[in-house]
Write a structure and sequence with these properties.
With about 55 residues, the protein is mainly alpha-helical. The longest helix is centred in the C-terminal third of the chain and has 25 residues. The mean pLDDT is about 85.
Length: about 55
């Protein structure tokens, strides 16, 4: 597995943690889903960026 694929998997995992964490923390913090979606979207975009760089090589 090359370096770009590892980064893609890492950011995909971080995105899933952000999305699920935002939903799980909703009873504690009302803005948690918004924060989770924001950071999750950033992680998904980073994963797509690294996947694109890997495929371009």
């Amino acid at each position: 597995m090359n370096k770009g694929r590892k980064k893609t998997l890492l950011f995909s995992l971080l995105a899933s943690i952000c999305f699920s964490g935002g939903i799980a923390l909703k009873p504690v913090l009302t803005s948690a889903p918004t924060i989770g979606v924001f950071f999750g979207t950033i992680c998904v975009l980073a994963a797509v960026f690294f996947l694109g760089k890997t495929e371009a090589k």
